[in-house]
Fold this protein.
Amino acid sequence: MAREPVFAIGLDYGSNSVRCLVVDVRDGREAGSAVWEYPSGDSGVLTDPGNPHVARQSPADFVAGLEGTIPEALRAARAACPEMRPERVIGIGVDTTGSTPIPVDRHLQPLALQKRFRRDLGAQAWMWKDHSGMDEAEAITALAREHRPHYLAKCGGTYSSEWYFSKIWHCLRQNREVFDAAYTWLEFADFIPAVLSGLTSPDGVRAGICPAGHKAMYCDEWGGYPDAEFLSLLSPEIGALRERLPARAFPADQVAGRLCAAWAGRLGLPAGIPVAVGAFDAHLGAVGAGVGPGRMVKIIGTSTCDVLVASARERLPDIPGVCGIVKGSVLPGYYGIEAGQSAVGDIFNWFVTEVCRGDASLHGRLTREAAALAPGASGLLALDWENGNRTILVDAKLTGLLVGLTLHSSQAEIYRALIEATAFGARRILDRIQEYGVRVSEVVCCGGIAEKNPLFMQIYADVLRRPMVVSASAQTCALGSAIMAAVAAGPAAGGYAGAEEAQAAICSHKQDAYRPDPRAGTLYDELYALYCELHDSFGVAGTGCDHYPLMKRLLDIRRKARA
Amino acid sequence: MAREPVFAIGLDYGSNSVRCLVVDVRDGREAGSAVWEYPSGDSGVLTDPGNPHVARQSPADFVAGLEGTIPEALRAARAACPEMRPERVIGIGVDTTGSTPIPVDRHLQPLALQKRFRRDLGAQAWMWKDHSGMDEAEAITALAREHRPHYLAKCGGTYSSEWYFSKIWHCLRQNREVFDAAYTWLEFADFIPAVLSGLTSPDGVRAGICPAGHKAMYCDEWGGYPDAEFLSLLSPEIGALRERLPARAFPADQVAGRLCAAWAGRLGLPAGIPVAVGAFDAHLGAVGAGVGPGRMVKIIGTSTCDVLVASARERLPDIPGVCGIVKGSVLPGYYGIEAGQSAVGDIFNWFVTEVCRGDASLHGRLTREAAALAPGASGLLALDWENGNRTILVDAKLTGLLVGLTLHSSQAEIYRALIEATAFGARRILDRIQEYGVRVSEVVCCGGIAEKNPLFMQIYADVLRRPMVVSASAQTCALGSAIMAAVAAGPAAGGYAGAEEAQAAICSHKQDAYRPDPRAGTLYDELYALYCELHDSFGVAGTGCDHYPLMKRLLDIRRKARA
């Protein structure tokens, strides 16, 4: 602490709000913070009553979130910490949800800000959980399987409806006017640094390796984004877009740009400080939680993200069904491995809101009641696919299942079974990754559920049969962004030479871990075997005992019935 | 109507209350009625917090129900109908739920009335939906399969945990003291006529062919109840019970006894009038609704019962999975065929009460919301096995399943899917019975749901692809009992010579039937095919795609977890 006090700003754009953290670069102390809820739609999400797969967000909310958080966080930091002065802020880091592509014009303005597109859902940001491109995802997977199998191998064998090209192609098919008006499509994580840097053309954007590699089949091995010939197989228009995509993508410890004077003035910050390349919230959350070799980070929110790293000195085999393995996407010098479940907290929220028609307080009551139940005592078993399956099946057309219901099955028993189902889903992912030689000796968790729900954490410890550690910071994503800001600023400005050095100074976790209970673990092993039976039968084609088409048939019937 | 006005009393003992109807024998006019709720337990049901399979009832409630209803129904009838006078009552008919065996001493007193057994769950009436004898049912099925396959053929190939000997044997194993104190076990339907007739020994009881044939493997072809040698295979004590079971059983149009002076005085009725042989509520409900060749009656309540008749002039083949085919159990001269679902209304009640934690008013709201949905539009599909499967799988160890869940699945969608699931279950039964040559050209429905829930009725019409007719009487069970009382009394007393003649005079149905919508029917055909896929996979061993053991494994794990 002999060093001169300097600060970094971490911006974390989540599903419903944006958060800003002002971090003391020396020790990770969180000097001040601010949160700003997106004002549009339903908690920031724009939906289509006629199509449950649509989830969009307003780019105007994203831009407004800068002025909504940074000045307030700076004020809070100054109030709490006399050493803090705006001129001591050495950089800004940014993480966002994703894949969240935003159509922009040639001046880098989101189409959604144009009057004619203001109310057009297609012109908004296509939120990560938007599944309207399901058919396109299937077609991309089929085309890549035939023509570019190496593209697929890096993203688990299946291209998802949640990802960049599925969404853009769906827009082309469904909303030609928007597609034609768009010069290109920027990932949310690339858009914010570009805005802060005052760029006026998409051609100057320094894209993040994290969104590009994990969601857009970008890889330095084959020259960046998928080649134009392949993209033309989707459609000539997508092929033509290729030349308007960035030539290279960069890790998040690199400089995306310098804070422009206009935004510096609006935010009360020094102009010219570096803005780091953007990355996904989960990846920088993992950095903020201390991800490292053998130490997996699980970010638990509406969905979950499992982030691991494996040394890039040896070649890592492709892992079937694991969404992404991208060199440099988490920590420079390591493969970043991303897996995760498309709904976790969302499942509990759905149950409380839609099924029980309760308010948020019901979570507390159900958690208390569910905690009084013994593992396995409900006789219930669920598949956690209410929002499809992201890992290891990569199939948005899977749905949730609940079995073992009796006339005595209670609300709390179902709630607990849903938590257990997500834990089984988590174990299935971990088992798959371990089969391919990536050992996981420790799980560090972050997110509201990890901090507030001991029942959830204990069930996970028992099902995964590993201690579960909770990150000390409640804001690991913003903290990870601040870490990258400090590395982008570099040692000369009071920052760090590398991410691991910064992590060592900044990251910490709570002392009490959740320890696995062997008796519960044994019962859960039995339930997990049944979970795997259903998982494979309903989720994998050609398993012998094969209900694989059933969930898809139900969606077909639903589509017909609603037509 | 030129005949002298005479009246018959129909007593209908349901799951939660007893109802008495005073019927004008000439035309079926319902002159007066009364209902009395069982005061014990939870709406008359005694449960065991440690074992969800236990459901018992108090025999004292049953006896008290006589004075709780008959005098009030007579008063109501006199007030409404000046011609009605107690001396014009020509007989009493009785129906009850079942199989509901009651342990009694040698003086015909229920053990539950003895001080030492008053709080003993084993000494109470073992309610129809008690499943604690699941293991015994399996063992009886296995023994009969090996040693007396013809016993099983009449009850659909599997002896149920809901039935007489499963319960008695379970009592012997779990509660030896009660078993040893019992002289014999009377079906509820036999117990009430015996009480009204003032019998003081079980040996004088005239048992009903309906409970004996449908639940206790009684058949005149093999000399009545199962032989002592077979019952001794269960245990010597059950074998020894054989000689204390009645030698013969009788159809419900026969006289069980004559109203004794003591009860005549208490009830305000003439002593000596005939009390008809008892039968199950569903069977006499079918009689009251006008069951006949080709005309199936569906009694829809907490569970459902499908009752059909087929001429006894030709031999009817055994129908696998159909609970009972018993000559004379519904109408004399016909095979009575009983099938049904172990939970229907109970499933909706469970969902509203246990899952949604709503009160009864929620049914109305959910029905309105569900009625606004199109068939198949929810994408949900359920198996209706929350209380096991009675027909055609005869397996209490099956449980409910719900698939197709998404983060948008609503309370009303699930409610509708549960209704649809029971309709698919109903269709599966109908399909099976038709495969064996019993044609069903018309479905007459009775019960509260049939009268009050047009959505339910329309879904059934669409799924079964047949018009659904509603019985005019809201009290078909009590009406059927009164019909049997009028036949037991005979023409000389102003009654009838036979049940069909009495039905022709007394039964009627509402004019408006629910007509099947062909478009909905086509969609439901597709969903029904998926229902059958899950039905066979989870419910039938050895189907190729076979999750048959999974539900049983969950119950095993539950048992272990609760131990």
About this structure: Chain A has two domains: 7-282+476-506, 291-470+517-563. Chain A touches chain B through 56 residues (CB under 8 Å). Chain A has a mean pLDDT of 95. Residues 411-435 of chain A form the longest helix (25 residues).
